[in-house]
Amino acid sequence: MDVFHKIREMKIFIVDDDEWIRDSLRIFFETEGCRVLAAETAEEGLSTIKDQSFDIIIVDYRLPGLDGIEFLKRIHNAQADAIKILITAYRTENVVAEAKKLKIQGFIEKPFTSDAIMASLAYAIKRRDMHSRLENA
Question: pTM (2 decimals)?
Answer without folding.
Answer: 0.91
